[in-house]
Amino acid sequence: VVDRSGSMDESMRDGTREARKMDVVTRVLGQFIEGGEGLEPREGDLLGLIAFARYADTIAPLVRDRSAVAALARRLDTVKQRAEDGTAIGDALALAAARLRRAEEELTARRVGRSGPESDGSEPAERDADFTIKSKVIVLLTDGVNNAGSEDPLAVARLAAEWGIKVYVIGVGGGMRYQVIRTPLGEQRIPVGPGIDEGALQAIADATGGRYFSAGDARTLRDVYERIG
To answer: What angle do CA 179, 70, 83 make, to 5 degrees?
Structure first.
């Protein structure tokens, strides 16, 4: 679940240079899904992708084709219309939790159906070995404060916990937010306002038995995804 609000156009440190947060996030997220720079590919996982600003959108449903999901992740960009900007964390979490719950219900129904009177006679465990959900996880990445949508993030997190879903939250660029501008004296980092609400994001993670991580640069973000992996 990835934030693509306008603030993701702001910069963060990427090695020795400054880069757009969105560009850093999409690159590292693609590596987390498909493997790269020391990150192991998500083999055997059902993977889905949701992006959000003022509205939450399903970019990829839950599938086992990690290359396809990674490709979609790398093509994510920030919203360009002011009317679409905002940070609807609660709505995005609700959409992700509902999709995970629905996937589990569908697989359970499929398993029951296959073991019913019209089954082909093979052992259910044999046929359904590839369709066992061992855990359900949402990885939420945001650089902002919930300020749009209709769902309360903490209430959604508590519901996700009831459904057996853990939420791992990544706050990108905690503390004061900065914009890099060019001046006659070179590039200058100018503060543009407060950053993420780390207390709220920590509460979301805690409510589900997950964890909160802060990532202020590309290297830290990669390390966070490695720990989650």
So the answer is: 45
